[in-house]
Design goal:
InterPro entries: Glyco_trans_8 (IPR002495), Glycosyltransferase_8 (IPR051993), Nucleotide-diphossugar_trans (IPR029044). The protein has two domains: 53-288, Spore Coat Polysaccharide Biosynthesis Protein SpsA, Chain A (Alpha-Beta Complex), CATH 3.90.550; 296-389, no CATH class. The chain has 16 helices and nine strands. Helix 11 (251-262) packs across helix 12 (270-280) and helix 14 runs antiparallel to helix 15 (347-361). It has helices spanning 20-29, 64-71, 86-99, 112-123, 127-130, 150-155, 167-170, 191-194, 220-223, 243-248, 251-262, 270-280, 306-311, 329-340, 347-361, 376-389; strands spanning 75-81, 104-110, 133-139, 176-180, 184-186, 206-210, 234-242, 285-288, 315-317. The strands form two sheets. It has a seven-stranded mixed β-sheet, sandwiched between helices. The chain binds 2-acetamido-2-deoxy-beta-D-glucopyranose (3 copies). The site of one 2-acetamido-2-deoxy-beta-D-glucopyranose has 6 residues, from helix 10. One 2-acetamido-2-deoxy-beta-D-glucopyranose is lined by residues 175-176, 197, 242, 244-245.
Length: 390
């Protein structure tokens, strides 16, 4: 969602910061899924008897204390959904269950009128996939604080964008989440990014990727009127958050203070506040590589995310509405494929094949020309799974 708009008068520059080591390490360090069953079979690790249609939403008055223990061992996804973003969010959810073995917990912060939509759509999933997930819906709420009204937070950038700053305080029983914008698609198992938590040193409490690979076209370094992280700032569309550590830090107090101090200088809402925070606390941030938050910016002029050329885009970020508009036909083709994919259909013969077909028939674009950019990750996943079987 948050993707800084770049000036067209960019300079092509060859000196690129390539984080190859991280990428190569990650490639070999992927935790292979423990289950080798194909998507056509049922998963022996999951209970088979509960065939009754049940809602997976937890009763809201359930004691908080149960949650943490129930949901330990899950991968927790947090997402904030307002306006017309529900559809792409459901496609994002679908992409999470295709490749991931670990049970998933979705924390959905949304407007009251969208609650029913999520309940109905998720209940409609085939049983095998519904069993993999649990979810909880939350209202959008902001703290009332001296000098900053809840209404001010709502008005900053987009109606509910800043909600995520307060997730540590709202999910008090949850240790860690992967926060994603609604316009994200996972092209590989979530275990891969989740495993980065274990690489945090003792001071790191969150992980993101940087905003640009090329300083010459960076937005923050050229235009920002507030402090930002590092040389080019960070993109917060995919963010690992260790909530336990965030709660123990000055995070909540600090972002509210930065808001008061910089409110008139902020362009991109919550992402700017996150940049300001990590400007002052650089030791608390783990920076991951660009293929884990792959955006049109990485290929629209030239290919600047080198790890993705080798590994493929691992997590795709369709910022600036490229899922729906015609600016980036290759990104649009990927979204269309995931949207139309039927849960339970073969990943190799249906998902991957239609992806290739849709990419081929999309109008030419600079991003579409990077070989295997959008398919490599899925192919690698399918190949590794097949190797396991033999
Ligand atoms: C969420 O907000 C709606 C409308 O404001 C309200 O009716 C509902 O009770 C709230 N739910 C929770 C769990 O706070
Ligand atoms: C988050 O930090 C806490 C406190 O340091 C630690 O106990 C926990 O294991 C961390 N969570 C993850 C997923 O690494
Ligand atoms: C953790 O890593 C960050 C980023 O590399 C660094 O700034 C910080 O000093 C490290 N913390 C410790 C305790 O080593």
């Amino acid at each position: 969602m948050r993707c800084v708009v770049r000036s067209w008068r960019m300079l092509f520059k060859l000196g690129l910061t390539v984080i190859v080591l991280v990428a190569v390490y990650m490639y070999y360090a992927i935790d292979q899924p423990e289950s080798s069953n194909t998507e056509e079979e049922s998963n022996p690790h999951l209970p088979q008897e509960s065939k009754d249609v049940q809602t997976h939403e937890r009763a809201e008055n359930k004691p908080e204390i149960d949650k943490a223990s129930d949901w330990a061992g899950h991968i927790h996804i947090a997402v904030v959904v307002c306006g017309d973003r529900a559809e792409e969010t459901l496609v994002m959810f679908k992409s999470t269950v295709l490749f991931t073995v670990t049970p998933l917990m979705f924390h959905i912060f949304t407007e009251p009128h969208l609650r029913k939509h999520f309940q109905e759509q998720l209940a409609f999933w085939p049983e095998k996939y519904r069993q993999k997930i649990d979810y909880q819906l939350y209202n959008i709420t902001f703290p009332e604080q001296e000098g900053v009204k809840a209404e001010d937070w709502r008005k900053l950038f987009k109606p509910c964008a800043c909600q995520r700053l307060f997730i540590p305080d709202m999910l008090r029983d949850i240790d860690s989440v992967l926060y994603v914008d609604t316009d994200i698609l996972f092209l590989s198992p979530l275990e891969q990014i989740w495993s980065l938590f274990s690489r945090f040193n003792s001071t790191q409490l969150a992980a993101v990727s940087i905003e640009h690979e090329d300083k010459a076209i960076g937005w923050y370094n050229r235009f920002a009127r507030h402090p930002f992280y590092g040389e080019v700032g960070v993109n917060s569309g995919v963010m690992l958050m260790n909530l336990t550590r965030l709660r123990a830090s000055t995070w909540l107090q600090s972002v509210q203070n930065y808001y008061k101090e910089y409110r008139l200088k902020i362009t991109w809402g919550d992402q700017d506040l996150i940049n300001i925070y990590f400007h002052y606390h650089p030791d608390q941030l783990y920076v991951f590589s660009c293929e884990l938050n792959y955006r049109p910016d990485h290929c629209m002029y030239m290919s600047v995310c080198k790890p993705a050329e080798k590994l493929g885009a691992v997590i795709l970020h369709g910022c600036r509405r490229v899922w729906f508009e015609d600016k980036q036909p290759a990104f649009k083709a990927v979204y269309k494929t995931f949207k139309e994919h039927y849960l339970g259909g073969s990943l190799r013969y249906e998902l991957l094949e239609s992806l290739k077909r849709n990419l081929q028939s999309a109008p030419q674009s600079s991003c579409g020309k990077v070989p295997n950019l959008f398919t490599r990750s899925i192919e690698n996943y399918l190949d590794s799974r097949e190797q396991e079987k033999t």
